[in-house]
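Checklist before submission:
- one chain only
- standard amino acids only
- sequence pasted in full

Submission:
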Amino acid sequence: MGTPLESREAQAEEVLDRLYEEYPDTTISLSYSNRLELLIAVMLSAQCTDERVNKVTAELFEKYDDAADYAAADQEELADDISSITYYNNKAKYIRSACADIIEKHDGEVPDTMSALTDLAGVGRKTANVVLQHGHDIVEGIVVDTHVQRLSRRLGLTEEEYPERIEEDLMPVVPERDWQQFTHLFISHGRAVCDARNPDCDACVLEDLCPSSKRDHDVDLASGEAW
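Returned file contents:
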């Protein structure tokens, strides 16, 4: 029966324990070799699969070496280089603008603070968190992507709807030591079992403590809609 534990803290701890055992080697799935490549890959990944991004950046990172290359790139040419990515025209503009600022304001280096990163075009808190965690080894928040957004609501860890509110709500509940892996574990579980449209509750290691389990409940807490 899908019955959550009494407190959100206890629920989060048990969820983490089980997911660590289920996905012991989970980590970021984007391919990159330096901080700028990481930043660009994460910018491209918005509303796009990591698999698609990795295919595009395999050639993109061969063509452009540094922030100066991107800033000087022709808009149409860069957009064409990433044309299989969602919203490629806007993302090309953001990349060019962000790289111009990196050169002008940060000596060509990807900045290492939340405020400086989110000042860059096309960079929100989620992207900044990823860059800080994997580019600078700075963990000051929880990356809330679509998987974290969906699973944290399904599991009764939050009732908030929007990413920044979800992050704010989860940070006191999830132990700080687990903030980085929390995201990777939820992404792995979301891809493998708990997808958006048809989660496989029968195969889920969290089913017995999930208040959205299709075995026992009529409503998907992620969407608020009936199964």
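Reviewer check: The first strand starts at residue 219 and ends at 220.
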